[in-house]
Amino acid sequence: MKKGDFVEIQAHITVIVTLQDEIFSQAQVIKPFNPASIKEALLRWCQHKLQGYPVKVTNFSSSWADGMAFCALIHRFAPDAFDFNMLDPRNRRGNFELAFKVAEDNGVVPLLEVDDMLMMGDRPDWKCVFTYVQTFYKEFKDRP
């Protein structure tokens, strides 16, 4: 591992901790702290933002496995970046590459790798997806 890799990893950890602190503080205003309620609130935010897209998001694992939910979420905020209707759920690599690139171009911190998502198959680690989706929330929470 190079020194630059360590700095990059440390920067990602800082972003994650900051995002979690922000979400936790907002959740505490609503109800006493409950980690499950934070996960549920972020899931509801995704479902709200993805209304009108032909994707069904019910969790932070299998719902994101083909890359279509990531594409829909970033398309919601960058509709001119690509034609969502031309995407194919069978093209997982292409979907992840597109979503992650457009997301990064729009300020989302790149926490997931395409190859990691492909290796996880149809049941990605929910904690990885949840953490990455928090960065979408952080970047886009104030946009309609």
Describe this structure in words.
Residues 36-141 form the Calponin-homology (CH) domain. The protein has helices at 3-30, 35-49, 68-77, 92-105, 114-119, 126-140. The mean pLDDT is 87. α1 packs across α6 (126-140). The protein has a single domain, classed as Actin-binding Protein, T-fimbrin, domain 1, CATH 1.10.418.10. With 144 residues, the chain is mostly helical.
Q: DSSP helix count?
A: 6
Q: How does the major sheet shape up?
A: none
CATH level-4 homologous superfamily: Calponin-like domain
SS strand fraction: under 5%
- Portion of residues in helices? 55-70%
- Low-pLDDT segments, ≥5 res: none
CATH fold label: Actin-binding Protein, T-fimbrin, domain 1
Q: In angstroms, what is the radius of gyration?
A: 15 Å
Amino-to-carboxy terminus distance:
41 Å
Order of helices and strands: HHHHHH
* CATH level-1 class: Mainly Alpha
User: What's the β-strand tally?
Assistant: 0
Overall mean pLDDT: 87
Structural class determined from secondary elements = mainly alpha
Shape: globular
